[in-house]
Design goal:
The structure is a homodimer of 335-residue chains. Chain A has 335 residues and is an alpha/beta fold. Among the domains of chain A are: 89 residues, Rossmann fold (3-Layer(aba) Sandwich); 131 residues, NAD(P)-binding Rossmann-like Domain (Rossmann fold, 3-Layer(aba) Sandwich), CATH 3.40.50. Chain A contains 11 helices and 11 strands. In chain A, strands 1-11-8-7-5-6 form a 6-stranded parallel sheet. Chain A has a 3-stranded parallel sheet with strand order 3-2-4, sandwiched between helices. In chain A, α2 packs parallel to α11 and α7 crosses α8. The longest helix of chain A is centred in the first third of the chain and has 38 residues.
Amino acid sequence: MALLAFFKLGFRCWKQNVICFKKNSTFFFQTFSSILQSEEYGRLLSGLDIAKTIQTSLRDQVKKLKLQHSYLTPQLAIVQVGSREDSNVYIRMKLKAAENIGIIATHLCLPSNTNQTELLRALSHLNLNPSVHGIIVQMPLDSVNMIDSTLITDAVIPSKDVDGLNTINQGKLAVGDLVSGFLPCTPNGCVELIKRTGTRIEGSRAVIIGRSKIVGTPTAELLKWHNATVTICHSKTKNLPEVVAGADILVVGVGQPNMVKGDWIKQGAVVIDCGINHFPDTKRLSGYRLVGDVDFEQARKRVSWITPVPGGVGPMTVAMLMKNTVLAALKCNKP
Amino acid sequence: MALLAFFKLGFRCWKQNVICFKKNSTFFFQTFSSILQSEEYGRLLSGLDIAKTIQTSLRDQVKKLKLQHSYLTPQLAIVQVGSREDSNVYIRMKLKAAENIGIIATHLCLPSNTNQTELLRALSHLNLNPSVHGIIVQMPLDSVNMIDSTLITDAVIPSKDVDGLNTINQGKLAVGDLVSGFLPCTPNGCVELIKRTGTRIEGSRAVIIGRSKIVGTPTAELLKWHNATVTICHSKTKNLPEVVAGADILVVGVGQPNMVKGDWIKQGAVVIDCGINHFPDTKRLSGYRLVGDVDFEQARKRVSWITPVPGGVGPMTVAMLMKNTVLAALKCNKP
């Protein structure tokens, strides 16, 4: 009887092992297969996820700051003229992020009949307000009057220019001073994304398509000062696919949906897509979907990493703005 | 008799023709041979010659200005600390050029024990002096005290920053404003040289080696805004010869004698050598000769145009400084 029980137990264990083995094998092959499959596609460089970790860190920083200096809460003023819907969306994102972190964010919304003098006067008050550490002017200005946007950007005192777009801050970045001013938010976000892939920027070939003041130009400068060999392309560049094919790191900011084709891209490149374009899509209630400047579906078969649109660069821009605001408060507090 | 005279004349003419033909043929073959020979070598892009034509034009401009406004003579203040021999040479060139053009140039030579505060004070006086239209501070500062050269450069009021090195002017150039400030002299000189070759900058591939504030960075920006596709290389660039080989236009400013080898260079490229290096040469009384950053003898077998050192970029830098000074006086005079 004991022997029978022994054999029954043995059989049961053996059967259990076979079941386990089958389960594990299935799991193994399924996982291996999905790894192989994902090897065909580059990984998604989620700005959304990375921005969350940055915001968590900023939240802790702000808490410490308040503990050390009870009077000091970083404060950001967002100035808007008019009420463009896209601007409204971006401002809401910024207000929400600020609230999440513990930054006081005020939204000064001026009517669309505001003229240049009135806007300058509003900025002047904010410049002089010691409680306000950072000031941004949401672009584009939605005014019925002619307003020189460069004049406006330069009217923000450099020590509060948390957008980093003041000509002085642009100049500092150009000549390699990455510390005494503020780095523009989108470029800083792009470089932060690239760093998170583990890709070595130093010595790499970086190609930037676009030379705007907000994205292309400062991103090129920033990558140059991180020791990449940088090539800047634009609307007058010849043989663009050939130039793109040389890029280990590709940053695109041109505002043209799906302009950069997958087969232009070097195998294994890191692609940062700064484009936000409305692309007609009748399947959506809104009638459009958001696409970037890179043909995502094609590109992802070749890249090692690629930012999605939306959910890539956009959230990082907001995170960098918050980071600059906290930095402004810290600098302000230094003796 | 008449017939004999006729034949004699005919013979004489024929003989003369043969002599002429021989002379012409010799001349033809000699010239053709030298053309062939010079086809093996790129043409010299003489900054000395081009600077002379620019100075002639500026001289006329200054004359007209004085006729229109008798009180108005462009005035340039050159501030030097200490007395480095190389600085003395450059300042003499600038004073001479100014005199040649009709610009009043004053040389404020401060002793080497000058400190930062004293230098700032001197600059402040010049900033406030309405007769002074342009101010340059000759670098490097030869002082026994620590002086922040960026602070000094930024202390020159932007409207008199005829060196174009103030951070604001650097920022303007970075974002494409080529008119409201002053373009840095050496980069502006480089671009002027390139234009004079007839080479189309737009759409070309331009490679800049060096990212200094004075040469590399602003030259890259300026070429970018002239619509070249620009690549910036530096000490951390990998495979530099490969990058150089792609350049239609190559600008080198690294301060390393003969660094760029001839066989790196694309056949027919335009090469602008901004280097001024003392190279040991026992055959010379001084013990050295001036060489650029490009191996000139090798490079000229491949280029279409190349600047000599000396006599290339240096004179153009001075010419552009004079141009900026006249421009400063003109701007100052505008209501």
